[in-house]
Amino acid sequence: MQMSMTDRAMRGMRVFAIGVLSAAVLSCDKAITQTEDLLPLTASSTDATAGAWKMIVLTSATQVAVPAPTAVSSDAYKAELAAIKAAQNALTPAQSERINYWAGGGVLRWNQIVRGLVARYNLPPAPRDDGSYVFPDANNPFGDPAFPFANPPYAARAYSYIAVAQYEALKAAWAYKYQYNRRSPARADAEIRQLVPISDLPSYPSEEAVLAGVTVAMMQTLFPAAVEEVTKRGADQREAALLSGKATSSDLAAGLALGRSVATLVLARMTADGTGNAIGNAAQWKALADSASARGETPWLSLETPARPPMLPNFGAVLAWSATPAELAAARPPAPFATASAQMKAEVAEVRSTVENLSTAQRAIAQKWNDGAGTYTPPGHWNDIAADHIRDANMSEVRAARAFALVNMAMHDASVACWEAKYKYFNPRPSQLDPAIRTDIGLPNFPAYPSGHSTFSAAAADVLGYLFPASSSEFHAMAAEAGLSRLYGGIHYMNDITEGKTHGSRIAAFTLRRAQADGAP
Amino acid sequence: MNFFRLTRRDRTIGALAPSSVATALVVLSVGAGTPARAQTLDDADFMKFRVLCAGVVYTREQWTDYWEGTLKRANGNIGTLTTTSATYMTAYGVTDRLNIIASLPYVSTRASQGVLEGQSGHQDVTVGLKYRAFNTPLTTSGMLQGIVAISGTVPTTDYTPDFYPMSIGSSSERATGRGLLSFQGRNGLFVNGSMAYTRRGNVTLDRVSYYTNNQLYLTNEVQMPDVTESALTLGYQGHGLFAPLSLVQQRTLGGGDIRRQDMPFVSNRMNFTRLDAHVRYAVPRSRGVLLMLGGSQVLTGRNVGQATRVTAGLLLAGKL
After folding, report:
1. Minimal Cα–Cα distance from A131 to chain B, Å?
2. How far is A304 from chain B (nearest CA, A)?
3. By C-alpha distance, which of A170, A206, A225, A231 is closest to A395?
4. Each residue of A210-251: pLDDT tens digit?
5. Which residue of A4, A301, A453, B274 has the lowest C-beta tally within 10 Å?
């Protein structure tokens, strides 16, 4: 078989092309980093005055009593120090790994864990064969459907209660730390190694155990099916504090008890906040539609098959953090355009034209901010953003808790206010008014106006802008993009977005009012 | 054949493609909503020296039931998902025993119910080499062939992999190695057995976190598990006909299940067992016109639709 030079050259080129193609795929490193990497936390300040910062749920930082620790000269305390030394000498690789993990900061790590749980439980119940839906049951959390359905309002509330409980517990811990002034074991005994950076923050009660105690207790109620897993995490965090030379067993025991007691007080507020009535019943759902019809409006309809009851129609009556119901009512956005109006027709046409001419960049924005079912939700996305800035600011645990508490209180209030407005107006989604509108992301099963993404995002951006002024414009640009992403996805009118955004800012003002008066420098 | 001297990282494929084993190339079909494979490439058939074969294969695939993990169900917000594709394909005989093969599908998806937007576009281009390593008389009744193939696949457009089941593909770069052993009887009957291993590159999403396989990933990068495919084929070749019947099994070597009432995800463990049948017919006196008709049915699966597929193709072959 004789091949010409051209044939040989052609063949060589082809073989080469295939080889390059295959090698490019085969040589790629598939390993990915699963979580945000956190360097060991070295707080820029110990925030020694945090015990005097204003409380939110508790009446004072010392509402929960913490008994005085045993004297450092006692045999009991010396035995605790000896136990740390012995444990450090027998450190396993798994223990070292957990020490490094928790060294990144307890507040930041727990925030990641909560985001993971929200994403795990953010799935709507599947319909039954007869077309009906069963609601999640807190007494049967492992059932089908699992409890909870961590949708955006549920998630915003959960993030806020966990963050506030941590913040309250840490302020209480700080008060006792500086009252009792017990040095950390690594400072008290030169033979104890500092396996993580250790500041001159007093160690009794241990902030790690406070965080573990308060967070695990909150999660037992909010994510009961995950209790075993989070209990293990809490134990890991306490063990890491001991092994790294930060806390003795009595520091940890006092912290754990304090954290649990604070959680009990915060849970008393949470379980009476009205969320238990948020789902409502069939008669109420019908009344919402009838009321819209009576006003001459086209009422919202579920576009799912089978039709699904609206998401948490009474969530607007849930207790907010920083505003009274009257204040929230006064901040409510004006009514949307009438469904039969020319303005509304123009709004519908704008959505249709947007999705029919969607650019790749617009689709990417819709997906970037989708945060739909199965994700950590829009409030989770803003926690993700907040976490990066909190990490970079090297905040003490108590200051990090304050930042998360403020952002999440604002988003919970935004969620309450937004849901109140959504069900007051009961406004249909674009695909209901024009069935030719197909969406590029999942269609949320609740009324359109105003846009929840826009409200959450504006509220979060305002509070983050207050906490991190140098990045304020960046936060507001993100919030604007998050709002627009809903138009690109084909699930919101522009008016939902513009009104949601200003509404979110009005709601954030209540949180900022609190932040400016809470005594934190 | 120096192009089979694989680099150090290619060991897995190298192990599957010893010179004693034979191969054909396929465009691997991975899971629900993916396009037709180039049917004529998954076989022991070769273009002769300097013969070029090119054409278009049209495929329509539909499913109503799918497996949410291992739970079989329908979904009122999808109804029936239809995926149509037109695949441009070409094969060329570099020599009688070495073919170069390329294909590129244009894919469209559409759901009969719900509000989700169908997606469409050019999907992934595949270029591969297929080499007959040996062809020896086994008994007086037939020949035993050994074939090996390698191929590379890359996306040609920036379609989204983050909108399953509407996405037109995984947008993952892939490299596949395949070995095929074929016994060709003198009476025209043949039996083939093949194994393929596909290494898949990571996929990048437009979002910064996702949840799959029981954990939250705080990254936009998705690790794609590798995929194996095994096939057993019985068929007839002769009188202008080429008619294989195959049982194909895909296994994804990792990945999570679709959670209850969740959307599918690009890295899900997509497994299936499928029955394929098709007929290729060389039209007499047409000087190289080949017609192709076929169908397939997914029998069992995991995280894929129970798809029924029909295929029709027109191919032209001629000597350059």
Report:
1. 10
2. 6
3. A170
4. 999 999 999 999 999 999 999 999 999 999 999 999 999 999
5. A4
Query: To the nearest whole angstrom, how far is the Cα of B61 from the nearest Cα of chain A?
Result: 21
CB A310 within 8 A of CB A300: yes
| pTM listed for this prediction | 0.91
The fraction of chain A above a pLDDT of 70, given in percent, is 94
Tokens 């920036």 appear where?
Answer: B158
A443 touches chain B (CB under 8 A): yes
- Torsion, Cα of A417, A168, A407, A465 (10° steps): 130
For chain B, percent of residues with pLDDT exceeding 70: 87
Residues A110 and A214 in one domain: yes
Pairwise CB contact (< 8 Å): B211 & A14: no
**How close are the terminal C-alpha atoms of chain B, in Å?**
24
Residue A259 burial by CB count (10 A; 0-12/13-18/19+): exposed, middle or buried? buried
pLDDT over 60 (residue B44)? yes
**Residue finishing a domain among A270, A291, A322:** A270
Amino acid identity for residue A313 in this structure: P
Residue from B27, B209, B214, B219 whose CB has the most chain A CBs within 10 Å, to mutate:
B209
- Confirm if A370 and A115 have CB atoms less than 8 A apart: no
Tokens found for residue B237: 């070749």
Residues of chain B found within 8 Å of residue A368, distances taken between Cβ atoms: 206-208
Structure tokens at B275: 């029955």
Residue A368 touches chain B, beta carbons under 8 Å: yes
A303: nearest CA partner in chain B: B114
Contact between residue B60 and residue B84 where contact means Cβ atoms under 8 Å apart: yes
A346 and A450 share one domain: yes
First to last CA, chain A: 86
Owning domain of residue A392 = 308-516
How many other CB atoms are there within 10 angstroms of residue A304's CB atom? 19
* SS3 sequence of A342-385: HHHHHHHHHHHHHHHCCCHHHHHHHHHCCCCCCCCHHHHHHHHH
Per-residue confidence at A29, pLDDT binned at 50, 70, 90? low
Interface of A with B in 143-172 (CB under 8 A): 144-146
Domains of chain B: 2-319 (2.40.160.40)
Length of chain B in residues, anyone? 320
Nearest beta carbon to residue A364 from set B100, B202, B206: B206
Q: Are residues A257 and A372 in the same domain?
A: no
**Rounded distance between C-alpha atoms, residue B314 and residue B56, angstroms:** 6
Contacts of A111 in chain B (CB under 8 A): none
Q: Could you tell me the CATH number of the domain that includes residue A155? A: 1.10.606.20
pLDDT in tens, A48-80: 999 999 999 999 999 999 999 999 999 999 999
| Band of pLDDT at residue B141, cut at 50, 70 and 90 | confident
One DSSP character per residue, B270-312 reads -EEEEEEEEEEEE-TTSSSEEEEEEEEEEEEEESSB--EEEEE
Alpha-carbon span A315 to A419, nearest angstrom: 6
Q: Are A47 and A398 in contact (CB under 8 A)?
A: yes
Please check whether residues A252 and A383 belong to one and the same domain: no
Q: Does A302 touch chain B (CB under 8 A)?
A: no
**pLDDT tens-digit readout, B166-182:** 999 999 999 999 999 99
Hey, are the CB atoms on B216 and A438 less than 8 Å from each other? no
Which among A270, A294, A322 is the end of a domain? A270
- Identify residue A257 by its one-letter amino acid code: A
Question: In total, how many domains does chain A have?
Answer: 2
